[in-house]
Amino acid sequence: MLADDEFLNSPELDLDGWREALLPRSGHYTPVARESQPFIGRARARSLYGLFGADLSCNALRVERTQRDARRDGLDHYFALFQVAGSSTIVQNGRAMQLGVGDVALVDSARPGTHIFESDHGQWFSLQLPRRSLVSHLGFNLEGGVSGRGGTVGRALFDLVRNADTAGASAFAEPYMQLVVYDLIGALFIPSDPACTSLHADKLFKRVCGLIKDSYTNPEFGPREVAAGAGISLRYLQKLFSQRSSTCSEFIYSLRLDHAALLLHRRRLLRTGQPVSDIAYVCGFRDYTHFARKFRQRFGHSPSSHKGGLG
């Protein structure tokens, strides 16, 4: 559960103790206590589907993170902050995000921000989301924001996190559950301007095509190597090509076959007598039979009878 009796009965921390509890994984934050009462907080670290999480509570007036804090921490992750009890407001990037019970906000650890508490019994669950793996999976940079639980996606994410302790996910299932969390986060916080997402995807697709053109003649080079070289997930690589009515494998084969057609045309003009099987290998095919079948499908005749360039 997001907050349970064990957590609520855990030892109380003073201001310095609460800051120290957050520091190792979450960075520097400065609580500002209320004038009428001493600071009391609790913090419990735990893992959720292999991701770092923390149950948090405090009676502060607000918690601040400065630009200097962000610079010296050098952290590079988002965190999803779930409001478990009470209400609060997060201010970041010049925007104020109000949270009630069941709401989730996406916060950028690399930027300053302020968390203002409207009640003195606030409780939250913070889930750390590594920026590189999240953006790689989704294919676009996320904007901070807040989402109500009322929507289907928000409710699914809240329930997934709330019930994580009883889900019984094995170590084998953890990576898949992480992807489920990433997908729900992406659906909730997709950039409001579709053009930004499209521009990012177009630039990335252009870079992917460049990587393929540099290495397609390597017989060992395929979609997995493309994804690794571009620093994106195989799933998102497939999405980039499917949006353009193609596949990564088809694009690689197209380049190999075009190259083979040009080499065969030159072979015919120069009468070099170069074995067609050698041309197949030079163009990235390990098996001649496979090459010949692909070539016939593309050009309508066998490699040995090819006369033109790409015609």
Order of helix and strand elements from N to C terminus:
HHEEEEHEEEEEEHEHHHHHHHH
How much helicity do the residues have?
40-55%
Class by alpha and beta content: alpha+beta
CATH classification, class level of the largest domain: Mainly Beta
CATH superfamily of the largest domain: Jelly Rolls
Kindly, what is the distance between the CA atoms of the first and last residues, rounded to a whole number of angstroms? Answer: 64 Å
Number of domains: 2
Note the main attributes of this structure:
311 residues; alpha+beta; Jelly Rolls; Arc Repressor Mutant, subunit A; 2 domains; six-stranded antiparallel beta sheet; 12 helices; elongated
Structure overview:
- The protein has about 300 residues and is an alpha+beta fold.
- The protein has twelve helices and eleven strands.
- The chain has helices at about 5-10, 15-25, 65-75, 130-140, 150-160, 175-190, 195-215, 225-230, 235-240, 250-270, 275-280, 290-300, and strands at about 30, 40-50, 50-60, 60-65, 75-85, 90, 95-100, 105-110, 115, 120-130, 145.
- The strands form two sheets. A six-stranded antiparallel sheet has the order 2-3-10-5-8-11, with helices on both faces. It has a five-stranded antiparallel sheet with strand order 1-4-9-6-7.
- Helix 5 (about 150-160) runs antiparallel to helix 6 (about 175-190) and helix 7 packs across helix 8 (about 225-230).
